[in-house]
């Protein structure tokens, strides 16, 4: 979902920094440059995760199920063909995910190297909580599959997601597996690296 | 158009590697990390959104009228997956490979190969556009309109308006990144 994907990129960046904080603090303390190699190493990971995992997963759902992907907030993403303004909305979605990852990294790194690391974990936990509340408030949008018009005018015409309409649920599960495996791979890689310090 | 997205992405990777040639030549890990992160950021921020925009608004034109399926992405996991990962693979992948090839050449003192590479890519893009000029400059948003012969000129609104915005976005950002990397390329140390 658009409402989850953008903050997810932000949270993932902060989380990776949190896992690797030992290595970052040590290398940052020893470095003479303002942004040492470890800064770019983690920025690369955050942007790579946002670009390779979150962006394609988001595009996949936005291209196939535009209404569901943004919790039926707007009809515009359902009418993108031959409409240069509406076609730009998914484009902004991609840009915003990457921006979220970048801002998350810059903020997280700043908190770590300026002795404010105690704010790092509460920041991403608060963002996660806020996103969860936002999605719950939109119930039952995430349980129904259909169009913007159907959601707002005729919910009886919509199909529940667990009935796997057009293999939507199967595709969604595959996307979630892809996300989880990639996330765990990075998590364990960073943890292993951090233990060496 | 899909046919020119790959050479343009390679061109961008090569151009950026040339802009930061001193940093790549130094063999310094920090400078390499900075350069590859910059190329990745540039690719996902300024290249990927462009074909995705055309895929959304003018799917048949974007895929050179080769297939009918881009018009029916809705409710199709396979097609949506192909678009999502295809756009990413055909933009970020070639840009990153272009950058790594540029780095390889620069570290071996063969900078001229990088220049040859991006000039060749520019020529290739020109040749593709020339060969496909009929479908490039005659727009049909969907395959059915293409089949029915319902075309309108490249220069007409709304296609041209959107095309102009994303073209300025892409080439403008490439020029800014090139100049910015050139400036950082001269400064010692990198910070």
Short description:
The complex is a heterodimer of chains A (197) and B (191). Chain A has 197 residues and is an all-alpha fold.
List the helices and strands and how they pair.
The complex is a heterodimer of chains A (197) and B (191).
Chain A: H1 2-19, H2 21-30, H3 37-64, H4 66-69, H5 84-113, H6 120-137, E1 144-145, H7 148-153, E2 159-160, H8 168-195
Antiparallel strand pairs in A: 1-2
Helix pairs in contact in A: 1-3, 1-5, 1-6, 3-5, 3-8
Chain B: H1 2-19, H2 21-25, H3 29-47, H4 49-57, H5 59-62, H6 77-89, H7 92-107, H8 111-131, H9 133-136, E1 138-139, H10 143-147, E2 152-153, H11 159-186
Antiparallel strand pairs in B: 1-2
Helix pairs in contact in B: 1-3, 1-7, 1-8, 1-11, 3-7, 7-8
Description:
- The complex is a heterodimer of chains A (197) and B (191).
- By secondary structure, chain A is mainly α.
- Chain A has one domain (2-136, 167-195).
- Helices cover 72% and strands 2% of the residues of chain A.
- In chain A, α1 (2-19) packs parallel to α5 (84-113) and α3 packs antiparallel against α5 (84-113).
- Chain A is elongated, with a radius of gyration of 19 Å.
- Chain B has one domain.
- Chain B is elongated.
- The chains are: A mainly alpha (197), B mainly alpha (191).
């Amino acid at each position: 979902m658009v409402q989850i994907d953008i903050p997810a990129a932000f949270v993932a960046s902060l989380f990776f920094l949190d896992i690797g904080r030992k290595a970052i603090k040590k290398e940052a303390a020893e470095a003479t440059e303002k942004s040492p190699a470890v800064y770019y190493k983690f920025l690369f990971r955050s942007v790579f995760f946002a670009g390779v995992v979150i962006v394609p997963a988001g595009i996949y759902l936005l291209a196939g199920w535009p209404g569901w992907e943004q919790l039926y907030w707007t009809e515009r993403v359902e009418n993108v063909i031959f409409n240069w303004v509406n076609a730009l909305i998914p484009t902004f979605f991609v840009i915003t995910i990457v921006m979220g990852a970048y801002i998350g990294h810059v903020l997280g790194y700043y908190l770590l190297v300026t002795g404010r690391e105690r704010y790092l974990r509460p920041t991403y936990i608060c963002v996660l909580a806020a996103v969860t509340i936002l999605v719950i408030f939109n119930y039952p949008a995430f349980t129904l599959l259909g169009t913007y018009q159907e959601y707002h005018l005729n919910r009886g015409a919509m199909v529940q997601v667990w009935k796997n309409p057009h293999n939507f649920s199967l595709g969604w599960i595959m996307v979630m597996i892809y996300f989880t495996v990639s996330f765990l791979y990075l998590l364990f890689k960073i943890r292993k690296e951090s233990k060496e310090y | 158009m899909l046919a020119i997205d790959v050479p343009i992405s390679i061109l961008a990777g090569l151009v950026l590697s040339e802009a930061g040639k001193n940093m790549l030549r130094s063999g310094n890990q920090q400078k390499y990390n900075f350069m590859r992160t910059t190329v990745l950021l540039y690719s996902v921020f300024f290249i990927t959104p462009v074909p995705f925009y055309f895929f959304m608004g003018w799917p048949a034109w974007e895929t050179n009228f080769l297939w009918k399926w881009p018009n029916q992405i809705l409710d199709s996991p396979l097609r949506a997956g192909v678009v999502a990962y295809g756009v990413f693979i055909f933009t970020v992948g070639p840009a990153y490979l272009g950058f790594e090839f540029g780095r390889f050449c620069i570290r071996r003192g063969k900078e001229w190969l990088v220049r040859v590479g991006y000039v060749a890519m520019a020529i290739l893009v020109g040749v593709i556009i020339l060969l496909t000029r009929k479908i490039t400059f005659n727009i049909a948003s969907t395959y059915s309109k293409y089949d029915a012969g319902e075309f309108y000129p490249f220069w007409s609104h709304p296609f041209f308006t959107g095309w102009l915005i994303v073209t300025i976005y892409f080439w403008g950002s490439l020029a800014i990144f090139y100049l910015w990397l050139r400036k950082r390329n001269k400064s010692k140390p990198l910070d």
